[in-house]
């Protein structure tokens, strides 16, 4: 699979605007400023395909990228305090609408900042994915910011912080060093391959 061939397709600000699912989708979810755009750009080998912003909460739309036979779906970041209540509700209905709809959603990459315990919103999201029986992988972003000992401590603590931690695939990731990139790409390739064989 040539990840460099990915292209931005379109954005939707309301769930009602999103057309029916017509091919396999892989979504990326996480709180605002967790490094979602940086991760997507790194995976797709591009500098600014997904817009990276210094302002948290900038991705207020669902963004679709086309990658060969599948769609990569960038969900809005959640949990950013400095936006209005109505804006928060719009994001929430956008994310929930997408995840609850009857779509060809094969996997969600759920991003969590490696440096800190998962937020209450992260836990809410993970529980939602578990309850909805949506397959997901937890990606621990900003891995390069931790020293070896800190990493080991955080990984140990995550066993008690994440629901069903012993059953979750966890991938440490760094947009700086490229750690975790190949592992994430392999998962995407496996899903695309299965889709092509159906």
Provide a brief overview of the structure.
The chain has helices at 36-43, 85-100, 120-131, 148-161, 181-197, and strands spanning 7-12, 25-30, 62-67, 70-74, 105-113, 136-141, 170-172. With 198 residues, the chain is of the alpha/beta class.
Give an account of the 3D structure.
This protein has 198 residues and is α/β, with parallel strands linked by helices. It has one domain: P-loop containing nucleotide triphosphate hydrolases (Rossmann fold, 3-Layer(aba) Sandwich), CATH 3.40.50. Strands 1-3-4-2-5-6-7 form a 7-stranded mixed beta sheet, sandwiched between helices. The protein starts with 6 loop residues before the first strand and ends with a helix.
Spatial arrangement of strands, main beta sheet: 1-3-4-2-5-6-7
Number of domains: 1
Beta-strand portion reads 15-25%
Structure classification: alpha/beta
The tally of strands reads 7
Instruction: Characterize the largest beta sheet: strand count, sense, and whether it forms a barrel.
Output: 7 strands, mixed
Into which percent range does the helicity of residues fall? Answer: 25-40%
Order of helices and strands: EEHEEHEHEHEH
Based on Cα principal axes, name the global outline: globular
Low-confidence stretches: none
Write the layout of secondary structure elements.
Blueprint: E1 7-12, E2 25-30, H1 36-43, E3 62-67, E4 70-74, H2 85-100, E5 105-113, H3 120-131, E6 136-141, H4 148-161, E7 170-172, H5 181-197
Parallel strand pairs: 2-4, 2-5, 5-6, 6-7
Antiparallel strand pairs: 1-3, 3-4
Question: Keyphrases for this structure?
Answer:
7 strands, 198 residues, alpha/beta, 21% strand, Rossmann fold
